[in-house]
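Case study: NADPH-dependent 7-cyano-7-deazaguanine reductase.
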Amino acid sequence: MSTQPSTELETFANPTPERDYTIRIRIPEFTCLCPKTGQPDFATLYLDYIPEARCVELKALKLYIWSFRDRGAFHEAITNEILSDLVRALEPRYMRLRAEFNVRGGIYTDVVAEHRAEGWTPPIPVQLPF
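Here is what the predicted structure looks like once written out:
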C-alpha cells in the first residue's frame, strides 16, 4: 500500500462502454497552498464524468489529489489543471469538475471546469408520465 502522493493516474477498462452513464466522485479533503501567503486552502472536489473507454482507479485518484497538498496554486489554475490531467488520462465523453473552496477572508470560491469530447452530445432526457 502506497503512503506517498503520486501524479500517476491509473485507469481501468470501462465495463459498459456502449452506454452513457455518469460516475460521480466527491473528494472532501482536497488541500493546496495559497500562492500568495503559503497558507493552506481547503476544498471539496465534485467530479462527474461519462466515461468512454477508461475509468479512473480510485486509490490512484486519491494519491494524485494528495500530490497537491504542498503546492501553491490559484483556485482557478488548480481546478483546470486537475481537469486537464483527468481528461488526458481518461479521454471521457464528458467531464465536469467543481472545486468548492472553504471561506478565506470572508470569500467563498467555487470553480467549475468542463470538458466535452468532440462530436459528443448529451442524450435527450426521457419524460416519464408520472
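For the exam, be able to explain this: The helical segments are 58-66, 75-90.
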